[in-house]
C-alpha cells in the first residue's frame, strides 16, 4: 500500500506558488502538507520541526541563497538526504549544473508543472527508498542483536562454522564439550568434535551437504569432548551468515533433549517483551499488518488503540527508573486482564497497544473507556508510597479503506499526542483532515459515490464559451462535468473526483454519460437553428477504448447530427504517454467528421514534435502561460511563437484562463484564434453567451 503523504517546504515569497504546487500534487493523489518559508530566521526551525520530505527553492530569493538552504538542511536532518529542487519562477532556462553545484538535486520550472511533478515524484520515491533501506538496516541490526541474545540464552548447543572452522559458539555449546571460554574453540575444526571412528562418515556427509543448494539437514553421530569423553548426538546443519559473511549454523542436540518443545519456547520468547511479558513491537506489527489485510479482504472492522500512562515521567523522577518499571509491569497486567478475548495487547515503549477486533467508532470508544477505568483502579505499592495513575488513549479505526501499517501507526501516534495535550485521562479518535486521506481511502470513498451518481443521474454539465477573436460568430462551448452530492445537492468539481475515477476504472463510464448528455443538447440546439460545437474532454482510459469511435459514429448517424459539431479534447501529457492510442483516436475522429484538440499544449519540451504524429484541429495553450502574460515579455514571446507556428500548420489556437482585458488585447495581437476564461464567462448550466459581443 503506497503512502503518498508529502511534507513539503516551499521557499518562495508568494502564496500562489505554494498553492499551485500543493494543488498539482493533490491532483496526483498526494496528501501534501506544506510550509512556506519567506524569512531566513525561521527556515532552519521549520526544517527541524517538520522533518520535510522535499524542499522547493524558488531561484532568485533574496533572503537566502540556494547554497545556504542546502547547508541548513544538511545541518538539521542528521544525515537524511532530503532533496532540494531548485525551481525557476517564470519558465526561463538556467544552469542545472550550477544549481546542483549549490546542492540541489535538479532544476525545474513552475512554468512546466508536468516536469516538476515528475522530478518531485522521483525524488520523494528515492527518499522513501532510502528511509526504508535505513529502517531495514536498523531492523536487521536489531534482529541480529536479538538473535545473538537468544543464541546466548538458548539451551541448544549452537555454533557457526566457516570453511570447517568454528567462528562462534554459544554457552550451551561450550558446556556440552566441557569448555569454559569461547577462545578455546575459536579456529578449532568441527571435525575435532566428532569421535575418531565416525570422522570418515562425517566428512562424506559434510562434502555432500556443501555441494547441495541451501538446505537444512541432520546427521546423527558419535561426538567427542577434548578430554576424550564420547556421547551420541544429532548435528543439524543449515546455511546462515555472521557479520555479513556466509557460514553454516550447527545445532547439536543430545538424544534426551526435547528439541521441538525447545524451539516452540524460543519462538514464544522472541515474540514477548522482557519487561512486561506482553507481546513485543515486532509481533504487534506483524499482527497489525495481518489485521489490515483481513479488513480489506473480508470487510471486517477493527481498531488500533495506543495507551500511554499519564505523568509517567513524574512518577519515574519520584521513585526512580527501576521502581517505575514496576508500575509499567503492573499496568501491563491490568490492561491484559481488561482486554477482550482474542484481542492482542503489546508493549511498544513508551506506550501500550491494543488491537481490538469487531469495533466501530462507538464501541471502540466504550472499549477505551473500560481500559481507562481499569488503569484508574490500579494502585502500586512502592515502599511507603502508593502510586496510582490514569492514561490517555488514541484510537485509529481499521476497515477496508485503511492504509499500510506505517500510516495507521502514525495516525494512532497523532491522536494519542492530541489526547495527551488535552489533559489527563483523555480519549481521541483519529479523524482525517482535508487532504490527509491516502489515495486508497479516496478511491474507496469515490467508488461508491460515483457508482451511485451514475445510477441516479447525479451528474450535471456546465458550459464555458470559446470565443473567436477574429469574427467567427459560431457557438463553441467547452463542456465540464460536475457531480452532485446526494445529501446537500452541492457540486463536486471534476478535479476532486475524476483522478479517482481514472484509478478505479470508472472514467470511461463517466465519459459516456457526458457524451450522451452532450448529444441530447446538440439535438436540441440544432432544432432551434443554432450552429453549436461542443468541446468534450476525454480521459486517458477513453482514448484506449477501442469501441469509442464506433459508438460515436453510431450516435452521429442514428441521431443525424451535424458534421464537426463534436470536438474531443486530450491533454498533451496524456497523448505523449499514449502516443499510438492518441494517433489512432485522431485518425478515427477525422473519418467520422469530428474535431480533435490537444489540451494544455506547450507544457512539454518540444510540443510541435507531437503534431508530426497526431493530426489535430485545435491546440489549447497551457494555462501556465496566462499567469504572467501581461507582465512577462518572455511569456508573451513564447505564446506568440506558438500561435504563429500553429497557424503555419493550419491549426487553430485557444487561450484559456483569460483573466482581464489586457490579456485579451495581447492575445488578439499575437494572432491567437479563440479565448475562454472567467473574465468572459465562467462555466455555467445555461448556454446564453452572445458570441457577437467581441467578434470582429
Mean pLDDT: 83
- What share of residues are in beta strands? 15-25%
> Terminal Cα separation, in Å?
56 Å
Overall shape: elongated
Explain what you see:
The chain has about 700 residues and is of the alpha/beta class. Helix content is about 45%, strand content about 25%. It has 24 helices and 27 strands. The strands form five sheets. Strands 18, 19, 20, 21, 22, 23, 24, 25, 26 and 27 form a ten-stranded mixed β-sheet that branches. A five-stranded parallel β-sheet has the order 2-1-3-4-5, sandwiched between helices. Strands 7-6-10-9-8 form a five-stranded antiparallel β-sheet. Strand 6 and strand 7 (about 165-170) form a beta hairpin. Helix 2 packs parallel to helix 3. The model has no long low-confidence stretch (mean pLDDT about 85).
Keywords:
single chain; 696 residues; alpha/beta; Rossmann fold; Beta-Lactamase; Alpha-Beta Plaits; ten-stranded mixed β-sheet; five-stranded parallel β-sheet; elongated
